[in-house]
Every structure is written in structure tokens, then in C-alpha cells.
Amino acid sequence: MLKRHLLPAAILIALAACATACTPAAKVRPTKNVIFMLTDGTSEGALAAARWYQRYMTGDMSFNLSLDQYICGLVQTHESDCPITCSAPGMSAYMTGVLGRIGNVSMNPLPHPGNDFYPVDEDRAGQPAATVLEAARLLKGKSTGLVCTVTFPHATPAAASAHYPYRWTYHPIALQQSCEGLDLLFGSGTDVLTDEMRAMIAGTGATLIEDDVDAFRRFEPSGRKANAANSDRLWALFGGDMTEFEIDRVDSEQPSLSEMTAKAIDMLSRSRKGFFLMVEGSKVDYGAHSKDPVEIITELLEFDRAVKVATDFARKDGNTTVVIVSDHGNAGIQIGGGGYANYEANPVDSIYYGIRGVKASSWKMVQRLQGCAEREIPTVFKEWTGIDLRLAELSDIKKNMNRVEGDYMQVANTWNLQGTIAKIYLSRSNLKLIGGDHTGEDVILGVYNPRGQRPTGVIRNTQLNAYVCQLLGLKGAVSWEDKTLGPNPRNPLFALADEIFAPHDKVFEGLECSVDESGDVPVLRVGAAESGVSLRIPAFHNTVELERPDGSVDVIRTKAPCVWNPDTRKFYLDQSLAGLANGR
After folding, report:
1. How confident is the model at residue 485 (pLDDT cuts 50, 70, 90)?
2. Three-class secondary structure of residue 249 per DSSP
3. Would residue 18 count as lying in a domain?
4. What gap in Å lies between CA 581 and CA 584, rounded to an integer?
5. Are both 278 and 419 inside the same structural domain?
6. Neighbouring residues of 423: CB distance < 8 A, sequence distance ≥ 6
7. C-alpha to C-alpha distance for 322 and 442, rounded to whole angstroms
8. What is the pTM of this model?
9. Which of 53, 186, 368, 568, by CA, is between 20 and 30 Å from 201?
10. For residue 347, is it within any domain?
11. Which ranges constitute the DSSP H helices of 344-390?
12. What total of structural domains would you count in the chain?
């Protein structure tokens, strides 16, 4: 009967932590550096699955995840109008303190009458919401960086460094990131880059490395070693859309997440004013959408190695906080479940024995099978997975051989080869997934703080943003213990947004404004008859062209890229531009 009274593991861990090292403090003292680490789409059950998998594969029953010791609570994740969030508003809430709607990348949402959980500020609707990364750079002079394993304008890195209402429209997001002034960006996305973006990146003083792991490893900022070919900033991209899954990665071709994290910390830690670094374990979510248990587990284990890199640095440094969290659950992976008979008597071998020989992700196996003759399918499959195909499974593979699902979020929901392979993997284990979609569960929160000041218990996503604002020492930062429902109007990021993302009709009130949408991006044109000055402001750039009456043109750089919102049909830009238009 005792078993009926056991609490889920994450809650027990959180309660135990709160009774010991998790000492709440209303006034959190800032730390010089903040490392924000997010494992995308990670259900709590994935942690247990990964722990036991590693123990089984290595024989080390003492193994625990590095992040285990830092877990201090749970986070409720949701959108402004929906309890289950997509990655864009999920990460945006952490970065901005604003709850968005589906697809919103660090934007104030438009009202959704009848569905909004809290009143939406209609005056701010459609306005970009300033992020903690932007605040770290603009208000605190800190170095900033992003590390991920997907294309760099993907939802999570985008929400830290750009603004747009639609997460899948990569071009305007990538343009903003390219001129944002990031000190480093490591990840993927060579397919997204344009020549203009390459020029913008170079214009920030950054070196750009594409698919050259040796150059990445050799790179030394000029601050450490005199080398005219190097700068203090670095972009390094590997792969067109994403890096390889960790289980497939070849070390001589691509760096791991943990290696990129170590490189990022080594570079950023030279900043006298400190740094803000965001690290995403991007592809746990991919594995969950595919219902591939091997992808989920191996990606999470690599994220955990990156956590160790970050926390080892933080412990040694003594002035760094590491925040570890997920944006939402996905697929609800669990050990056991329906059909797992005699679970009380079954050893760990019964869970993982059938997938112990898997050496390739289901995504990679698609390429391997499509590259072989039909008669070779069983042999190739056995070579890379250790699995003997059943006749029905072989038939399913042949039927779906040419079916490739282009949307990774739909792999488990459509007929395709990758989903077929993932289903075979899952059938050989005693792991269960409730589906291939996001879930509304609370997610784990872990924090290392040198003074033990960290949130505890069950908090909301906006409260975690308040904690990060406190860590950065932002003036007027609200305590994470403030339980204001919805976005907190006292959030200091709101004042920053009003400064750098003011609507153009207010900035240029009384002046003639027109929007030209004939080119690659919309362009705002502003004319001031009194001063004779005219402005040309391209969207998603941080430059303004000022034409004087004598025909001369000055190029002025703004603090942040100008953002165009197609829903409100407004530009959002630096308030100081009002003076330029008036000839000041």
C-alpha cells in the first residue's frame, strides 16, 4: 500500500531541495555572469529514462545526471491564451516576462477575447518585448552569446535575440540576429544565411565560420593571442538546418553541445563586465516529436554534459549563476506503462535490452536505408541498430521508403520512414510515450547560485524571468516571489522596450510616414518638411539612412534592430530617432 502514497520523483526532489540548500531570498544579489540553459521539449520522465539508460549501458549504478543536484522546483509553462505552449512563446516568457500566443517570438500578443488568461495590454499589443539578453548588453554592458544545435533563427535562440509574430518566418529573425551585436553564436543554419547577413555579421566585428570544425577549434580571440585574422567575436555554424544528433555526430566534422558551451564560456568570461549566455539542448524535442526514445535519451545526456561544463565553471568562478529549465514537456516519456507486465519483478535489462545496440538516430537511419539496395535493408538495419527486423516491420519500411516528413513536429503523426523506424525502436524497449506532441506538464527547474539564492517550489514562467532580471541587477527588478498573475507591469524590461521599440506613429508623430513593401523587407520613409531631412529605415536592420537637404546621406546605427509587425502594420524603433527627423 505504501506505493500508492509515493510522490512523483521531481516533486520529491524539489521538496527535499527546498528543505536544505534552496534558501529563498526576496532580494537576490546580482552575479557577474548568467548562463541560461534550456533543454527543449523535455518531460520530467525523460530524466529518469536517461539516468537508467546510462546506468544500464555503462554498468555504473551510481550514475546521476549532473543537473540532478541543482533541481529546486518546477515551472508552469503556458501561453497567454493556452495552457500548452509552443517553444517560441515558451522561451519568450523566460526572456521577456511577457506571455505570448502561438508562434510569437518575444512579442506582446494581440488580444484573444474569451481565451486570454489575463487581460492583454492593448496599448502594447504587437510591440516587441525586450529580452534579458538585450538588457544585459544595453543596460549592463555585458557580452552576450547563444549556443544551440538547430538553425540559429529557430524558436529558442530567436526568442532570446529577436522579435517577430511568426516563429517560422526565419528571414526577418535571422536579419535581426545578424546585426544584434552578439559576441558569439554557435549552432547551425548555413542554409538560412544570405550574403547580406554575412556582411551584417562581419559589420559587428565577428568572424564567421561555416562547416569548418578545425577553424572553430583553432579560433582564439584577439584578446588572448595577437592574430590579425581573428576578432573578439565569433559565429560558427555547422550544417544547413541542424547539427547531427549526438549519437550520429562525427567529432572531426562537428563539435558537440558541451564543446561549444565550453568554448563560449572561455570566450565570454574575458569580459570585464560579465556575460549572459543562452545554451539550448535543442533536439530532445525533435526526438520526442519523432517518438524516438534513443534520440530523446542521448540528446538529454549530451545536454547534461553541457550542464556540467557550465556548473564546473560557475563553481570555480564564484560569481556566476546557472539556470537550467525546459520550455515545455513533450511526448510524456515514461519507464514502463501500459502492457509492461510484472513490472515489479522485471530488471532494468527488460527496459533497454532491445535498444542497447542502436548506434544511429531514426533520422540518420532514413539516410542509411535510402542509400542501400532493397535486399540490403535487413542487414544495414541490423548493423546500425542491433535489431532483427520482423516481416511486418520490413514491409512497413519498404512502403514508406520514399516518404519523408518535412516537418519534424509531425514525424510521429504521419506515414513516413523516420516515424516507422522510431516506432520499431520504441517497440523494442519498455519505454512508453503518450504521443508526439507538446504536453502541459510542469517542467523541472535547476539553479546553481554561488549564494544559494534560487527560486523554490512551483513557480510561473514569468517569475523565472523576474529572477533572471534580479541576477542581472536591473534597476527596479521585481522579486521572483512576486505572484502577480500574468506579465508584471513593474518589469524593468517594459521600460527598455518602450525606449528601443516605440511604435513609429508615436516616434514620428506629426510627420509624413509611408511604408514601402516592394523590396526584400519593408522600409519606413519619414519626411520632415520643416527640417528638410528625410529618413529611410529598413525593417530588421539597425541602420537608418538620413538624407539632408544638400543630398548628403549619413548612416546612423540604432541600439537595436528596427522591427516591423505585419499584424499591426507598424514599425517599432528607437525613440531617439524622433530627434533625427527634426534635424537634431
Report:
1. confident
2. coil
3. no
4. 7
5. no
6. 291
7. 20
8. 0.94
9. 568
10. no
11. 349-352, 362-370, 377-385
12. 3
